[in-house]
């Protein structure tokens, strides 16, 4: 009987204890979140719209290409992927004509683009209060315009007009620079991708298109001025984006801004499933973000502990942790960008020697695995990579011809035609 009288008191004390623990944890989270936000801003990492805006002051409108890109939004959606791969793989009057037809249909885009690339800067207006819900359709415009210049350069090269081809590659490089500095962290990837495509196209021309010398000289000039990609800016902006996404994701109005319907299954819940609360999630994200931010200043072989987050460096772990191992992603890393530059230096040397069977470059040491670069020519293609493959990971290779060319040629070979399978065969 006495036990029956005591259990309500025990239950009450337990409830009070649990409530107190929850309250204590909430207060502790409030204090820790405030401290993490303070430390982030003190270290130069913005965490709200007002702070973010200070990193992107308005630029001189007389030097800004953005209005020209904006003017193309809604003016169609140029496509020329098939024509590009075919004119690169099988330059002929037929594939050149197909490429020129696409270019003619998009002459408005090219005329506006020719004007845009004369401006040294590009910055779009960004309402940072929208955070990760902000949408800049002009980024897609930049990508489509770069694709058109790639097609026009390929057509010019197929017509043996290196001056025109090189001119359009230079336009692609300007567009890449515009994309990298347009004002939103997602543009960093777009800029890297545009730069990588322009450089790969130029290298292919130097490898295969005659006359080789103009393209080889231009490739040497571009590689000599290889850009340094701003990894810290990208990490800084992506942390702001992630914090904003969390805030929006956990509110009905925010989910609507992200394009999610009220009855949508939370397909992104797996990202946050192990996290206790929004504040705890932000604390974890800030700690990790600050750790990576400071890790970029360390050697690849150091072990860094920062804000309770440990990062172990090694020949490949740094790249995988921050960016993955794709060639475009690795351009964001200092080691990845330097590795790409050295690979193109090796390619230039091999082309100057007339594409020998093999070459080694003791003075060109990959910063990824500290191995000298080597060159191999199997008669069909050439590849440049470091000597030894790190255990469990593939090499980051530079291969010529690029994949889009070899795949198209292999497709034609399998079809037994030796010409693009999509092109009509000549009548007998």
What do these coordinates show?
The structure is a single chain. The chain has 18 helices and six strands. The C terminus is likely disordered. β3 and β4 form a beta hairpin. A four-stranded antiparallel sheet has the order 3-4-5-6, with helices on one face. It has about 425 residues and is an alpha+beta fold.
Q: What does this entry show, briefly?
A:
With 428 residues, this protein is α+β, with helices and mostly antiparallel strands.
Topology:
Layout: H1 2-42, H2 49-53, H3 66-72, H4 81-89, H5 93-105, H6 107-116, H7 138-158, H8 162-180, H9 186-208, H10 213-224, H11 231-249, H12 252-257, H13 269-272, H14 278-295, E1 303-306, E2 309-312, H15 317-322, H16 327-330, H17 334-352, E3 358-365, E4 372-377, E5 382-386, E6 398-400, H18 403-415
Antiparallel strand pairs: 1-2, 3-4, 4-5, 5-6
Helix pairs in contact: 1-14, 3-6, 3-7, 4-5, 4-7, 4-18, 5-7, 7-8, 7-9, 8-9, 9-10, 10-17, 11-14
